[in-house]
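Tokens as discussed.
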């Protein structure tokens, strides 16, 4: 009893120290229960702040939506303009006139938080970053983010680009809900591009039990920020923190808050947390394979092929997600019929089975 009282006193003192400032301070935090969307903890949750690189969560949300609608595929090539190439770091240092695949762009946004890649995505979807920012803001309003305005795709400083901790928690919730398979990419800790390997900025994810994403952010005007998700005993909590003085202090603060809320739900910490995180990441990385069962000139034919494969060969596609992906071959638009979320072994086994019935099939990573 005495131990619990001391813990409560310590937590209260710690949180007062973190958030002691006027109500317009840049420091803010919120934790929500993913299942019920109930707010478990909040401080300055509706205070408008600069989103910094948390902006890229919306950029990624739109990419995932375009993938789902068949307007993009992971193999689509995105062209790099002089404007994109000139963006300040963090960046991949893409060259004007070059191109980058959507899958590499997605990984670069999640793991490297590349500003040049954010502009590339914006320009290829909307023609200009200014127009893409309008699209982002429209998406935000449709998701219930009432206090959010976007002015660019990266989060680079712009005084008119504002959001709140509550709005970012809504965005994270919608992304995980609407794109559960794409969200798995947020648990990856590194990716390679043109011979160079980039490691995640989300250091808390490497040590926190049950963590599986989502995104860090920093500009001088906003301080260090983090949108975070963790699952323990099948209970997911989403935590957002704005205004950390350092990355380490930001991580420590949110860890204390998240631990407190899990404890109040009677969910205890597992001592094997590092091993659990590594197993979850490995599993997610293994399930990134897709099989292509047809390529067509018209989308309607690609959709018919998916229905045919599902109905005639259910063993090969059971519990797998299907989609029609838009690709470009020699400047021409084509549509691929795909089933995704296979392990490498499953994908090759499924194609081998389909080929026995003289059906076209090949594996994509």
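Sequence:
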């Amino acid at each position: 009893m005495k131990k619990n009282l001391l813990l409560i006193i310590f937590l209260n003192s710690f949180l007062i120290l973190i958030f002691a400032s006027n109500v317009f301070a840049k420091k803010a935090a919120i934790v929500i229960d993913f299942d019920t969307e109930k707010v478990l903890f909040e401080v300055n949750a509706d205070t408008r702040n600069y989103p910094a690189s948390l902006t890229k969560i919306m950029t990624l949300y739109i990419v995932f939506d375009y993938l789902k609608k068949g307007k993009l595929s992971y193999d689509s090539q995105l062209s790099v303009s002089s404007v994109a190439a000139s963006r300040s770091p963090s960046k991949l240092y893409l060259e004007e006139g070059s191109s980058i695949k959507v899958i590499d762009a997605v990984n670069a946004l999640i793991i490297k938080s590349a500003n040049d890649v954010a502009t590339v995505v914006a320009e290829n979807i909307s023609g200009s970053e200014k127009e893409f920012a309008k699209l982002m803001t429209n998406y935000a309003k449709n998701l219930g983010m009432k206090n959010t305005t976007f002015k660019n795709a990266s989060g680079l400083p712009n005084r008119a680009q504002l959001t709140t901790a509550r709005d970012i928690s809504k965005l994270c919730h919608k992304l995980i809900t609407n794109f559960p398979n794409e969200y798995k990419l947020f648990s990856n800790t590194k990716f390679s591009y043109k011979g160079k390997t980039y490691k995640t900025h989300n250091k808390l994810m490497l040590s926190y039990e049950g963590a599986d994403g989502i995104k860090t952010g920093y500009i001088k005007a906003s301080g260090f920020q983090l949108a975070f998700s963790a699952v323990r005993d099948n209970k997911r909590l989403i935590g957002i923190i704005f205004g950390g003085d350092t990355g380490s202090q930001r991580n420590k603060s949110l860890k204390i808050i998240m631990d407190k809320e899990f404890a109040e739900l009677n969910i205890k910490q597992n001592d094997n947390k590092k091993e659990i995180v590594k197993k979850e990441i490995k599993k997610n990385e293994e399930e990134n394979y897709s099989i292509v069962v047809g390529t067509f000139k018209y989308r309607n034919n690609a959709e018919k092929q998916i229905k045919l494969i599902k109905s005639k060969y259910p063993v090969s596609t059971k519990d797998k997600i299907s989609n029609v992906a838009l690709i470009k071959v020699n400047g021409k638009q084509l549509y691929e019929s795909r089933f995704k979320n296979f392990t490498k072994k499953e994908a090759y086994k499924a194609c081998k089975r389909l080929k026995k019935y003289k059906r076209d099939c090949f594996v994509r990573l």
